[in-house]
Write a structure and sequence with these properties.
CATH architecture of the largest domain: 2-Layer Sandwich
Structural class: alpha+beta
Shape: elongated
Low-confidence stretches: 181-190
Strand content: 5-15%
Number of strands: 4
Helix content: 40-55%
Order of helices and strands: HHEHEEEHHHH
Strand order of the largest sheet: 1-3-4-2
Largest sheet: 4 strands, mixed
Oligomer: single chain
Number of helices: 7
Number of domains: 2
CATH class of the largest domain: Alpha Beta
Amino acid sequence: MSTVANGALTGAGTGGITALITGQNFLEGLWKGAVIGGGVAAISYSINYFANGNYKSRSFSATNTNEDYKYDPTISKETMQSNINDIQNNLFPKEDPISNYGVAQNTLGPGNSEGYLAFGEQGQKLLGFASPQNYLSGKTDILYSPLSAQYKDLLGLVMVHETGHAYLNMLGIAGVNITRNKWDREILLSKKYDTTDHKSFCK
């Protein structure tokens, strides 16, 4: 919500200066300017949040991979979370932390008997899930399926994909569906370019 704070500061400065120029009470101008500036910024932030679809969740399913990964239920949750932490540290070192890309945290999600995330539409094989952007913090939580957390190559792919969604949310860039019949059959079947988000990830 730094947008609202910046709006309030700008409004306060403008209101105070206007009050001095017009011979009114400086503190009253400061206060009114801050309220108006903060209010306008809050409304603008809310409109952008909903217009850009930041309230929507995003997911990565097994249909996006060509590999055949097998789930091992004997691998501990601690090992899988450690894999998530390792990949995060490799992809996003301390000098460029993942929070710079709009991610609050990367964690292991609840899994089903096949190792996919235990929620979503029936039959949907979810490997990763980006929560809706938090309205106040502007950050996104990402959950990884136990299956993806067991294979570091798969985990890296899912992490980059879901972090891409979080980053576009943070930047306020709305994902738009692409009319698929304008693309050739190979791209259509690959499902890679179904939204502008996914097209940007593949570039």
